[in-house]
Amino acid sequence: EAGRFSQSRMLAAARRGASASPHGPGMHPHTLLSDSAPDSSSDAPTLESLPPELIAAIGAHVKLPWLGRFACCCAAVAGAVRQAEEAWAAVWASLTGGVAPAPLGARAAVRSLLTLDQAHWRSLPGSSGEAPDWRQHGCVLTCSGGTRLILFGGRDGRRFFCDTWACDLASGAWVRVAAHSDARCPSPRCFNSDSGGGRVLRSGEEEWAVLHGGLCAPGYRDSQTWLLGPLSHPPKEWSWLPASPPDHVEGAAPVARFHHTLTLLPRREAAGDDSLALLGGHDRTISPLLDLRLFSLRHASLPRKASGVAAASVSVGWSSSTHVLGPAPSPRAFHSAAHYDHPAAGRGLLLACCGLGPAAGGEEVFAALDDTWAFDLSSGRWLELAARLPHGFARSRAALAVSRDRLLLAGGCRARAAALATYLPLTPGPAFDDVWLLDLRRGLLPSELGLRPAAVSAWERCVLPHERAHRTPHANATAGTLHGGAVVLVLGGHDTFLSPLADEAVDSFGDLADEQAWALHETEAIVVGERPERTEARLCTRGAPHSCGEGGASPSRRQLVGGARMLVQGLETQAHINGSIGTVVSRASGSADGRVDLALGPPHSKSISIRCQHLRPSRSEARGGMPTIAAPGGGGDGSALWVISPVERAAGEGRAAEAPSNRRVAVSCISVLPQPEHEGSA
Fold first, then answer.
1. In terms of DSSP H, where are the helices of 75-184?
2. DSSP assigned state of 455
3. Residues in contact with 241: Cβ distance below 8 Å, sequence separation at least 6, in sequence order
4. Which range, of 18-22, 200-204, 409-413, averages the lowest pLDDT?
5. Cys-Cys with 594: which of 35, 245, 297, 588 at CB 3.0–4.6 Å?
6. Which 8-state DSSP code applies to residue 53?
7. Closest CA to 133 of 648, 651, 490
8. C-alpha dihedral over 40, 46, 49, 55, to 10 degrees?
């Protein structure tokens, strides 16, 4: 307070490196307090005498790398920083914008977050009561602060579903909701190319699940919008309500489409409303679209039950943002979108990049795109960023997320070669296995009109530490964020390595079959550093999500082909190899449980001979077994990402009366913090 503790002087002293001080590496503690010679009087302040409150203040204002260097100035300060929970709580807040989990402690939480050494999968115990049949391409949402899961619809290959289920994520118990005989509900449908099918929106103190579009029958999609809720009530009181546009609004219903994006735009005020942005896609004629539609419950007359009778519908529609001034992106599908709050301008943005559509100045209708755009939600203007991917790196079907003011782009695929694109133009080309970063604070600058694109901005290739991540090419992957965007998870997606004659793996709409889907143990956790070269990454192979068969099925003879990726598990004599990913070099002739030569990736980087029973394939052989990733709600704490996958029903396990399937839905989650001891070992 007297000006003697100067942050700039502390940083300058910490930067100057080691000296011969008896206090250890760094400058003498007095040097941090004054530019003059050290004061030898007995009342001169020293770093050893700093109170914990000041250490906490330092932790709140000094960037994380310099906080560590400052702690090197003397042993006393190092010990104070290590033990001061307030300082570590401030570091956690600077990284995530939230409060560190109480059972774990801020120091352990920061360490787990930055090293990713505790990233793991965890499976919920199976429900002893009724549970939904397994289905793929259902709409799966999290709500109620990340404590419940909602499942609607889906398809099992023979039939479409229209049932709705809620799962208590604390116990794993399922309950069927909105199942009254006189209740209205959406028609049976699935969401194989519909960006998950919906999101959970907050309006004041209420939450509602919003469902849009979907595949109702082979070759037919509609543009209906439905609401489920209110989700703050017990699940048995939830009901479906169709959203109908107000009478004075014409053409408010969006065009039926697929291969579009649905992006949640969180509210900026606690009493405000979330919004849902629908962008691009293909229409019924497989022509790319551009129109941007926004959906919010801000002006909706949400129903209230009276005398046991609920309202028939909700009067609310989609607002159109197609008539905007200035330039706009070209029509596209298979693009990527994300939400970003610009801290300097205080404005919300919808970011969109890449995709498949007409290239500028070109004649191709289905060209891979390399541009990046931002839609200013306050001014209603599109802004084209100067950053473009380098030549040869244009792509579609990429994963996109915002992490610490940086836009992270992962995977995707090229457009199909021109010689093969005449009869199946939507078929994906070779997939990428790269990660790119774009600094949004430098790419978008404040101006009198709100924001303007910087004259110079560029994507930076992020070279991940190969000793910890054995990467795979992903297309259609999902990028989820945890802890306020501090961690990005890239999971799911497909491998597009196809021979020219393997068109049976892709349908006429460019959607890949389940056999091309990557398993969940190929999930990659990424922590973005201040510079691309300081980015940390790790494959999440610890623990195991639910899958068909106990502990995961061993690979079949068809899967043991050269180059196939396998997860090593269950070894006792070489336990340090468990969790490694390798590729099959060759296999011994004879039975499928013989030995296989496996080339392990980093950090082991060696070949081993291993039995098939200790391997788990990275790609599924069975149709209809691809997991579905839950879309997070706006009110969730963002500490875990939830996934549903199929498991075989146990003998005597509860099931729906009309269920012909012997597989049920199972729930798993992935997190990067250690599992609290009170949660057990489920």
1. 75-83, 85-96, 106-115
2. S
3. 184, 226, 227, 228, 303, 310, 311, 312, 313, 314
4. 18-22
5. 588
6. H
7. 648
8. 170
Q: Is 368 exposed, middle or buried (0-12, 13-18, 19+ CB in 10 A)?
A: buried
Residue type, 23: H
Give dist(CA 109, CA 639) in Å, integer.
11
What distance in Å separates the CA atoms of residue 178 and residue 239, rounded to the nearest whole number? 5
What's the longest Cα–Cα distance across the chain?
Answer: 87
Q: Which residue has the tokens 């009109």?
A: 449
Task: Report CA-CA distances (Å) from 503 to 7, 417, 418, 495, 620.
Answer: 62, 14, 15, 14, 18
SS (H, E, C) 323-362: CCCCCCCCCEECCEEEEEEECCCCEEEEEEECCEECCCCC
User: What is the rounded CA–CA span in Å between residue 617 and residue 594?
Assistant: 15
State the number of CA atoms in the 13 A half-sphere of 602 facing the CB. Answer: 12
Q: For position 61, what pLDDT does the model report? A: 66
The pLDDT tens digits for 488-504 are: 999 999 988 764 445 56
Token look-up 């990713």 returns: 116
Q: How many CB atoms lie within 10 A of CB 682?
A: 11
For 474-623, where are the E strands, in sequence order? 478-482, 487-491, 524-527, 536-539, 565-568, 581-587, 595-600, 607-611, 615-617
Cα separations in angstroms, 158 against 161, 382, 416, 660, 663: 10, 43, 31, 11, 14
Instruction: Respond yes or no on whether the N-terminal peptide bond of residue 230 is cis (omega within 30° of 0).
Output: yes
Q: Does 659 score more than 70 pLDDT?
A: no
Question: For residue 216, which of 239, 197, 198, 191 has the smallest C-alpha distance?
Answer: 191
More confident residue, 219 or 150: 150
Q: What is the mean pLDDT of the chain?
A: 81
Q: What are the φ and ψ backbone dihedral angles of 65, each rounded to 5 degrees?
A: -60, -40
